[in-house]
Write a structure and sequence with these properties.
Strand order of the largest sheet of chain A: 6-7-8-3-9-10
Number of strands of chain A: 10
Shape of chain B: globular
Largest sheet of chain B: 11 strands, mixed
Order of helices and strands of chain A: EEEHEEHEHHHEHEHEEHH
Helix content of chain A: 25-40%
Strand content of chain B: 25-35%
Number of strands of chain B: 21
Number of helices of chain B: 12
Mean pLDDT of chain A: 88
Protein name (chain A): ABC transporter ATP-binding protein
GO molecular function (chain A): ATP binding; ATP hydrolysis activity
Keywords (chain A): ATP-binding, Nucleotide-binding
CATH architecture of the largest domain in chain A: 3-Layer(aba) Sandwich
Family (chain A): Belongs to the ABC transporter superfamily. Ycf16 family.
Distance between the termini of chain B: 19 Å
Structural class of chain B: alpha/beta
Distance between the termini of chain A: 34 Å
Low-confidence stretches of chain B: 1-26, 91-95, 126-134, 210-214
Oligomer: heterodimer
CATH topology of the largest domain in chain A: Rossmann fold
Largest sheet of chain A: 6 strands, mixed
Organism (chain A): Planctomyces bekefii
Mean pLDDT of chain B: 83
Structural class of chain A: alpha/beta
Largest interface: A-B, 34 and 29 residues
Radius of gyration of chain B: 22 Å
């Protein structure tokens, strides 16, 4: 059975400020979707709202996985249902080794009912698996001993996100890659890594400006967000058009979309 | 999970055999409550000590009685000296009742997976940890190299000259009120002498020496590391240690001679009724290295500032300290580094955590004497406050009498960042697991210096604390 992540008429605010004004989207396992749109249109907000960040309030609409409304679920419950968000700027967790962190994460994801203090995946089994994944992704095994994201370069942080993706094997992966300033190494890491990992078991939503990201991961569906709504959905050609001509044509086609905010008022990226 | 069933049978038989339940009757000798010259003389007599030690004790008692309580640090208004038994000589079968051990402590032992025998030892239900078989051969090895590792009482009897040469030279009884108290009533503790050039490559642990009661109230430890030698000594344990004694006042003196190395690791997790007031000091001579690793998890109030006096050029000192203060706890901990000679260096890393209304303070001193040129000192003190009921304070003292030195002090206070919590939770960790992981990461610089089994237990203990199931 193919799982479906269904977003229905989603309205999301950050504090008092409405950002998403009725988003509709359906992602099935095995599909690759791209979400594009100018800065401030609400793309990252969608990513954070899906993952369950406490600062993002769903004011109406719903998020469902296979008919189960997860809008009230905490971030960890959503993760255990198979949702994964690869962050744009992964935060540093000092003193916590990559291997220790991943061992806990993997144990929880694979055994969602795991009680605290028991059932951690065995050390030997885990070590073997993480080494295999790291080899496949062309990563130095020393990586696992480093402290999570601490002193990592941009590319290394992206590699870490992809490694997590590889180990956690989510049903739905959301990649928040809206930073147009990303160095090319980082972009390459993500696009190649994703290409290796996606398949019929994974529904992917790539939020990006980079057409390069989409080279190795051709989307079946390209959505354009404007003013907190998805105004157009097309195929790869739409992505080409946006890359070549910017958003001017899309804006022209949807003059009624809410105007862009003239300055970013919210602390979170939109 | 039932904790009582396997142990109950032991205690029941014991109770039947002796026909009573009061734990104090299990002692072969117990002084009366309170402290005076007669009791101190009695202690010395029971131990069959030389006259000089008896006089030393009596002199110390005078000093103790003449000194006022410190006006700083923690709240000691509930500490009533007259209510304390200052000396108890345990019967061979120290039979405290397992039932007397508080339920939450018994539960923690289960959660930590501590073996039955060790549980009893930790709870003071058994006098010694039966490790004779395992450690017997280690001790033979040490003896062959001329290493002396025994308890302080035995050392006084068996190595009187060596003992007298160093005892009381690092911490004289007049140093502070509690050093005076310990000097008057001390009993037990470790005595270690490492001969020139001998490097002991495994940690000596307090429970290796099984010939006297460990974790006594007034332990006195003396360690002498001769030139070019090295030793790592570990005492205490991470599991909560139940003590019915409310005052623990230990003294640790260490002499690290030219070119020698000494590391002293302590983890204390005394039960919440204990006042833990400790004076620890080391003298580090030319080109030597002294390290204190100090973990403070338990007790009602701990006041402890491991100190290193850098006596000759090239001496280095380092103190790594963590303090975890939960509900009803006050950890007043830190370090002291005194630079008495040029070209010496010191480092203090202090990590403190407060939770559920706990209070943890860093109290530290860096002192540089005149003419101690070219010294370097670096202090990092980081505090993590986990909720709005909890408290953290910093009392750094820096006294520098020489210009040509480099002294740094960095401090930070933080709470668990929302973005860190969210990141970990978005990978499936519950909020409690995520918080525990962040706290564990916070203390990692210290934990990675601990012997493996301590590190594992410490991390496990932090997890339990974060769950809130352990008081």
């Amino acid at each position: 059975m193919t799982s479906v992540l269904k977003i229905t008429d989603l309205h999301v605010s950050v504090g008092e400020t409405p950002i998403l004004r009725g988003v509709n989207m359906q992602i099935r396992q095995g599909e690759v979707h791209a979400l594009m749109g100018p800065n401030g249109s609400g793309k990252s907000t969608l990513a954070y709202a899906l993952a369950g960040h406490p600062n993002y309030s769903i004011t109406s609409g719903s998020i469902e996985i296979d008919g189960v409304n997860i809008s009230e679920f905490e971030a960890d419950a959503r993760a255990r249902l198979g949702l994964f968000l690869a962050f744009q700027y992964p935060v540093v967790i000092p003193g916590v080794k990559v291997a220790d962190f991943l061992r806990h994460a993997v144990s929880n994801i694979r055994n969602p009912d795991r009680k605290e203090g028991e059932g951690l995946i065995g050390m030997r089994e885990f070590r073997k698996e993480i080494r295999e994944r790291m080899t496949e992704l062309g990563m130095d095994h020393e990586f696992a001993r480093r402290y999570l994201n601490d002193g990592f370069s941009g590319g290394e942080k992206k590699r870490m996100e992809i490694l997590q993706l590889a180990m956690l094997q989510p049903r739905f992966a959301i990649l928040d890659e809206t930073d147009s300033g990303l160095d090319s190494d980082a972009v390459r890491v993500v696009s190649e890594g994703l290409a290796k990992l996606s398949g019929p078991q994974m529904g992917v939503l790539i939020i990006t400006h980079h057409e390069r990201l989409l080279e190795f991961n051709r989307p079946q569906f390209v959505h354009v967000m404007l003013g907190g709504r998805i105004v157009e959905t097309g195929g790869s050609d739409l992505a080409h058009e946006l890359h070549a001509r910017g958003y001017a044509d899309v804006r022209a086609r949807h003059p009624d979309a809410a105007p862009e905010p003239t300055h970013t008022t919210t602390a979170a990226a939109v | 999970m039932s904790t009582d069933t396997p142990v109950k049978s032991d205690v029941e038989i014991g109770a039947y055999k002796y026909g009573f339940h009061d734990s104090t009757d299990y002692y072969a000798f117990k002084s009366r409550k309170g402290l005076d010259a007669q009791i101190v003389s009695q202690i010395s007599e029971m131990k069959r000590e030389p006259e000089w030690m008896r006089d030393f004790r009596l002199k110390s008692l005078e000093i103790f009685e003449s000194r006022p309580m410190p006006a700083w640090g923690g709240d000691m208004t509930d500490l009533i000296f007259d209510n304390i038994y200052y000396y108890m000589k345990a019967a061979t079968e120290q039979g405290k009742s397992w039932d007397d051990v508080p339920a939450d402590i018994r539960r923690t032992y289960d959660r930590l997976g501590i073996p039955e025998a060790e549980k009893k030892y930790l709870a003071g239900v058994k006098a010694q940890y039966e490790s004779e078989v395992v450690y017997g051969s280690l001790r033979e090895d040490l003896a062959k190299q001329g290493v002396i590792f025994t308890d302080t009482d035995s050392a006084l009897q068996e190595h009187p000259d060596l003992f007298r040469e160093y005892f009381g030279t690092v911490i004289p009884p007049g140093d502070n009120k509690f050093a005076a108290l310990n000097s008057a009533v001390w009993s037990g503790g470790s005595f270690i002498y490492v001969p020139k050039g001998v490097q002991i490559d495994f940690p000596l642990q307090a429970y290796f020496r099984i010939n006297s009661q460990n974790m006594g109230q007034f332990e006195r430890t003396l360690i002498i590391v001769d030139e070019g030698a090295s030793v790592h000594y570990v005492e205490g344990c991470t599991a909560p240690t139940y003590s019915s004694d409310s005052l623990h006042s230990a003294v640790v003196e260490i002499i690290v001679k030219r070119g020698a190395r000494c590391r002293y690791t302590t983890i204390q997790n005394w039960s919440n009724n204990v006042y833990n007031l400790v004076t620890k000091r080391a003298m580090a001579y030319g080109d030597s290295l002294m390290e204190w690793i100090d973990g403070n998890l338990g007790s009602k109030l701990t006041m402890k500032y491991p100190a290193i006096w850098l006596m000759e050029p090239g001496a280095r000192g380092e103190t790594l300290s963590i303090a975890f203060a939960g509900e009803g706890q006050h950890q007043d901990a830190g370090a002291k580094m005194v630079h008495c000679a040029p070209n010496t260096s010191s480092r203090i890393i202090s990590k403190s955590i407060s939770k559920n209304g706990g209070r943890s303070s860093y109290r530290g001193l860096v002192k540089v004497h005149k003419d101690a040129v070219n010294c370097r000192s670096n202090v990092v003190c980081d505090a993590l406050i986990l909720d709005s009921a909890s408290r953290s304070d910093t009392y750094p003292y820096i006294e520098v009498e020489e210009q040509n030195v480099a002294i740094e002090h960095e401090a930070s206070v933080s709470k668990i960042a929302e973005e860190q919590l969210f990141y970990l939770m978005s990978r499936g960790l519950t909020e409690a697991e995520a918080s525990a992981m962040i706290v564990t990461g916070f203390v990692e610089p210290l934990v990675k210096e601990l012997p493996m089994e301590y590190a594992v237990e410490l991390n496990r203990l932090i997890e339990l604390q974060m769950e809130g199931s352990v008081g």
